[in-house]
Every structure is written in C-alpha cells, then in structure tokens.
Write a structure and sequence with these properties.
mainly beta, 120 residues
C-alpha cells in the first residue's frame, strides 16, 4: 500500500442515477494508482473539499475490496475523452458520458489523465 498522504478522491457520476460520488484512489508508486473505496457525495461538498480539482494519470486499477458505485453497484468505470469518469452503462451499444454527454463505443484505457476540474 502507498503512503496515506498519497491518496486523492476522484469524482465519478453514476450512469444509472446520474448522481456524483467520490472514489478514493491511492498512489502505489510512480504512475500506479489503486481505487480503494467509493462513497456518495453532494456536488457542493465535493467542490468545497477541492475534489473538483484532482487529476491522476497512469495505470489505474481497482482493489478487490473496491465496492463499486454506491448508487448502482457497478464496478466498471469509463474514462471519457473529456477526461472524466462515469459508471460504464451502455445503452443500445453506446456509452454516454455523464459529464459532457459525448457518446461512443468503449475502448481500452491507455493511461490518459483522469480529471475532475469542472464547475459543479
């Protein structure tokens, strides 16, 4: 496990309920990160805590203990081209980003930056 000071909270949106939640993400080494748990959060609280200014890049994976989305239970997330993450909910073969509304087919994550710097 990494140093507890090397943990950040990423914001994610549920693809079923459209609600925001936080994902505690712990830095292991270099550009390796583990998602360890998730919790519901109000957007105003997320902004107050500065979670809307967090970004990570590199290899991001989930621990076995990661509970998934607190709203729908989904353990899979998708990183949109806009850099934000949402639960992976595919309707009619198409994923829709909960942050920017972009649509498309799911591809593999290649280590791009995950960002949370949007107005909530």
């Amino acid at each position: 496990m990494g140093d507890p000071r090397d943990a950040v909270v990423l914001l994610c949106k549920c693809g079923k309920t459209h609600k925001t939640y936080g994902i505690r993400t712990e830095k292991l080494s270099g550009k390796r990160w583990n998602m360890t748990w998730a919790f519901p959060i109000r957007e105003s609280v997320a902004k107050h805590e500065g979670y809307d200014k967090v970004s990570v890049s590199g290899d991001v994976s989930m621990t076995d203990e990661y509970p998934g989305c607190p709203y729908c239970g989904q353990r899979n997330i998708t990183v949109c081209e806009c850099g934000h993450i949402s639960c992976t909910v595919v309707r009619g073969g198409v994923f829709t980003c909960e942050w920017c509304g972009a649509q498309g087919q799911i591809t593999d994550y290649s280590g791009e930056k995950i960002v949370a710097d949007v107005d909530l």
